[in-house]
UniProtKB/TrEMBL annotation:
Binding site for S-adenosyl-L-methionine: C240, A241, A242, P243, G244, G245, K246, D261, D301
Domain of life, per lineage: Bacteria
Lineage per the UniProt record: Bacteria, Pseudomonadati, Pseudomonadota, Alphaproteobacteria, Rhodobacterales
InterPro entries named in the record: MeTrfase_RsmB-F_NOP2_cat, MeTrfase_RsmB-F_NOP2_dom, NusB-like_sf, NusB_RsmB_TIM44, RCMT, SAM-dependent_MTases_sf
Active site (UniProt): C354
Keyword field contains Transferase: yes
UniProt protein name: 16S rRNA (Cytosine967-C5)-methyltransferase
GO BP terms: regulation of DNA-templated transcription; RNA methylation
Length: 422
């Protein structure tokens, strides 16, 4: 048991080293096999510890800096951070401190710091748990915080950071009857149709998963397809489809979907998801920008900064620095232009991004409406159950933020607009 704790904690430290030191996303590090040698329970613990440490990193550093005269190497710092977060969440000091000492001691380059780690963590164990709640809610790094403060103001920024710190519940989309899904799993049936679970175990072990009766999808991410309103047998072009949450929604509504994504391994996940849920779609591994044809309905879920998903992916602000965003913004505009060109007269296009940055949402649509005078924003399409009127933006899109539904567990940040060709 004690050994299990050390292995999971060592892996959590490795994950943090990769995110903070190498700028890699947790999903990439895990997909590359970082946790392969662990048992399922250890794997889950390692991931949970890494996520919780990333959420509470600023608080952990504030507590630790009182006891450190200079910064130790990153691995030692990360071992201290993981242990500090665990201690402040009420973990038993003995096992946590011993694990951190053992992790640092096992590496030749850091073994001399065992004594320091032990001494610092004993002090954190004494005073840290009481001080934890009085520390401020961790802030986003400056490169991301500044544009968001100018978009939403300081108070909203703090509410968003609170939502990031609180993490996210598990939202499910039902393949069929959502009321029946809520009755079988418990939780809450949200007004927008998702089933929300506060406490969930291993997803693949939950009733109905293997049968394909539902899939995991944040409540905000489920709205673009509802706004597109797919019809039975309707031909729909879905651009940027992987891993397939929206493909499944479209197919479950009876639409004939052509789902395009240029990432073959992510597209494999769409294939697996469709197989599990016994749904069908035409899958195309290819560039959205070379798609041709003339469509009455298109969904474009463009690649973006993913800054709307920080509640579930707290690694993002630590792994990224915003330097890739300019290129993404340019790609989004090119994709939006191409999707508009593929629309039939009278056709509708839903454009969305899981981003909090207006440059990837409001500004993209405002600029596209200026470039394409034959296209209008359809504001009425956004008015679906559960959507509040003041979420609708000036240019005619929908801005969703993590601080919305604060009393119900929040939602991902998203931007959605429905454009109709004259
Ligand atoms: C936001 S994700 C899509 C999420 C997906 N719609 C869902 O609901 O599960 C963006 C996707 O765009 C894909 N992508 C990026 N550039 C592309 C391109 N030029 N052509 C097609 N797909 C692209 C990425 O591989 C990624 O899977």
């Amino acid at each position: 048991m004690a050994q299990t704790g050390v292995q999971a904690r060592r892996s959590a430290v490795y994950l943090l080293d990769q995110v903070i030191g190498e700028g890699r996303l947790l999903s990439e590090v895990i997909a590359a096999g970082a946790l392969e040698r662990l048992q399922p329970a250890e794997r889950a613990t390692a991931q949970r510890l890494a996520l919780e440490t990333l959420r509470g990193l600023e608080r952990a550093d504030r507590l630790l800096q009182k006891h450190l005269q200079k910064y130790p190497p990153l691995t030692v710092r990360n071992a201290l951070r993981v242990a500090t977060v665990e201690l402040c969440q009420g973990g038993a000091a003995h096992g946590i401190v011993n694990s951190a000492v053992s992790i640092v001691g096992a590496n030749k380059r850091t073994a001399t710091m065992k004594g320091l780690v032990n001494a610092v963590l004993r002090k954190v164990a004494d005073a840290g748990p009481e001080a934890w709640d009085s520390l401020r809610i961790p802030r986003l790094p400056k490169w991301l915080r500044e544009p968001l403060v100018s978009a939403y103001g300081g108070d909203v920024m703090q509410a968003i950071e609170k939502a990031h710190f609180d993490g996210a519940p598990l939202d499910l989309t039902a393949k069929g009857d959502k009321g029946a899904l809520q009755r079988s799993l418990g939780g809450t049936l949200l007004e927008t149709g998702s089933v929300r679970l506060e406490e969930a175990g291993q997803v693949s072990m939950m009733p109905g998963f293997k049968k394909g009766s539902w899939w995991v999808q944040d409540a905000a991410a489920a709205l673009p397809v509802q706004i597109l309103k797919p019809q039975q047998e309707e031909a729909i072009l879905e651009l940027c489809a992987a891993p397939g949450g929206k493909t499944m929604q479209l197919a479950a509504a009876g639409a004939k979907v052509r789902a395009v994504d240029n990432n073959a391994s992510r597209m494999e996940r769409v294939r697996e998801n469709l197989k599990r849920t016994k749904l069908e779609a035409e899958l195309v591994v290819g560039d959205a920008l070379v798609e041709t044809g003339s469509w009455g309905a298109i969904l474009l879920d463009a690649p973006c900064s993913a800054t709307g998903t920080i509640r579930r992916h707290p690694d993002l602000p630590h792994a990224k620095d915003g330097s890739e965003f300019g290129e993404l913004i340019h790609l989004q505009a090119t994709m939006l232009d191409h999707a508009i060109d593929l629309l039939k007269p009278g056709g509708r296009l839903v454009y969305c991004t899981c981003s909090l940055l207006p440059d990837e949402g409001e500004c993209q649509v405002e600029d596209a409406l200026t470039r394409h005078t034959n296209v209008k924003a359809d504001v009425d399409a956004l008015r679906i159950p559960g959507v509040e009127e003041d979420w609708i933006t000036e240019e005619g899109g929908l801005r969703l933020r993590p601080d919305y539904w604060a009393d119900k567990g929040g939602m991902d940040g998203f931007y959605i607009a429905c454009l109709v060709k004259a």
